[in-house]
Design brief:
140 residues, alpha+beta, HIT family, subunit A, five-stranded antiparallel sheet, 3 helices, 5 strands, globular, binds adenosine monophosphate
């Protein structure tokens, strides 16, 4: 299957729809997931188009994982988490619903369960506040 430029993350990259941005560089963008499974749940995407890990250019993967590492450390600090879950789905059979490569970054605390993967849309004021906390921890 090929890359479809009408996917929602391609629209975010083109500035056609808004996001709560936490980090951006030449090759990657990180923003809050609108249906967070944990407080501070962010997504990291490469700017280079690919459906998922399977068709991605290895150079995009390298840049993406460098940003995942930065955002994971910042989110852990910002939310006083004890750990960070990194998750990534490839194709619908594996649970992928948006077909532009992305990695989930979820701060985790012992005894606090994750909310459902396709759960409720978060309040935008809360997402904005959480994005600001991660940006502050990034020193941005
Ligand atoms: P998946 O493809 O299964 O890894 O999941 C896609 C993720 O994107 C889900 O966690 C959604 O909550 C999230 N999502 C969908 N639309 C948006 C959006 N416009 N902005 C931020 N996150 C989104």
């Amino acid at each position: 299957m090929s890359y479809d430029t009408s996917n929602i993350f391609a629209k975010i990259l083109r500035g056609e729809i808004p996001c709560h941005k936490v980090y951006e560089d030449e090759h990657t963008l990180a923003f809050m997931d609108v249906m967070p499974q944990a407080d501070g749940h962010a997504l990291v995407i490469p700017k280079m188009p690919s459906r998922n890990l399977l068709d991605a250019d290895p150079r995009a993967l390298g840049a993406m994982m460098a940003t995942v590492q930065k955002v994971a450390a910042a989110a852990k600090q910002a939310f006083g988490a004890e750990g960070v879950l990194i998750q990534q789905f490839n194709e619908a059979a594996a649970g992928q619903t948006v077909f532009h490569l992305h990695v989930h970054v979820m701060p985790r605390k012992t005894g606090v369960p994750l909310r459902p993967h396709t759960g409720a849309m978060a309040d935008h004021a809360v997402l904005a506040e959480h994005a600001a906390k991660i940006r502050a921890a990034l020193g941005a």
